[in-house]
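Practice set, problem 2.
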Amino acid sequence: MFGPHLVVEGYDCKRKDRLADKNVILNLLQEFPAKLDMTTIMQPQVMYYDGGDIPDDCGASGFVIIAESHIAIHSFSAKGFFTLDIFSCKPFDVDAALKYVCDYFEPGRYEYNLFDRGREFPRSIGRSSQIVAADRCRFQDARNFTLATAVVD
């Protein structure tokens, strides 16, 4: 597989002040990669949204690109809610990631899903060539079958 993708949703956060603070979100994204033994390759980007016509939708959104992929967060401070994605091309300690983000925002409860991304991701050019060749054979076989069927009809 290519790597794990952790999706976390935190509800009823006690630290709504942290969810609303662009600098706190920035700090989280600056520290988080190192906590997971990942490599930051660009400075995190964080934006604050005032909610526009729906003030309860206010919060901060941010992401950091890491050599292994990315970490992204969206917070809704008035609602005490956040979503977090960690996608990595290498395994990481999911329990440590959950503990870190939960210690940061203190959700009353949270849910998470862990997906294996790219289960057929080829790790080498040689393996990629084999997959492409097999796909071409299947396509050609299907095409030949369709042509043979059309001639018989």
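Problem 2, part (b): a different protein.
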Amino acid sequence: MDIQLKSRVKCIDRPVGEVSRLILSQTTREITDMVVRLDANGREIVVPVDGNTSVRPGPEVVLLYPVDRLEGMPGFRRGDWEEVEVAEFAPHLHVHQGEVLAKFPEAERDLSRRRFFFWASNAIGALITLPLVWPVFKYLIFPLYKGFDNAWVRLGKADRLPAADSPVLLEFTRTPKEAYMVNTVKKTAWAVKASPDLLKDVYKGDPERVFKEADGQPIWENKGVEYIVYSGKCPHLGCAYRWDETDKRFICPCHLSIFKLNGELVSGPAPRRLDTLPVRLADGQVEIIDAEYKAGEHGKKRIV
């Protein structure tokens, strides 16, 4: 029976309203009820479509009983019904989403109860699987929260720096692990066998002597060692710089930052002095902790 939305509805004694929604069976896909919006008060009731229902051209739906019978019919409650995909319904009726409904199963009518059991079952499942997935999860996130790599790296034998206050560019290889990507890179640092005057000049006030972990805990103090090692990266933008033996100064050719032998900035766009690194002498070898600091900032902010 093709009942159109907006069709006028009348009983045998007088008109009562219009069809506002259609309700069908999930199994037979046939219309079982219609929602009628009453003209008198706008109330919506669920009216069964059965042998007492007739559809006439116009369109018009005629209920073959008097108006008084409608009083015992149930009111329409949206929560009792679920939407039907309109593509599955008769296309010639020109219905839109939300205008064709089907009855919820009895067990699913109480939405709060359904939500409770949904979340309860999820919580129980999470408690069961947590002991299994936690080791994997911990393994995946650990690299994001571990501290800096404070391993000592050998630059070379100390006898490669025989002359005092004469910087030497030393190369070394590192294999950093960023999350789960491992790459081997070549790096450089400027090492100086420092005279007492240079040591005093570099470490005056001790701003460059103590090195700390990410949480602020001290990890090393450059004390009692006659070597100074500068990071091979300019603190401006991380470019490589060189030593000018004639003028006794470090020069970054990229943006023309100039530094004294003690690392102090003479001129240029660099925001701070050269970055000193933790250094020690072990078995005749000059060793460093390969710390890196964020370029372009006035203060030293360690990032690696």
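Answer key, part (b): DSSP finds two helices and 22 strands in the chain. The domain at 152-289 is CATH 2.102.10.10 (Rieske Iron-sulfur Protein).
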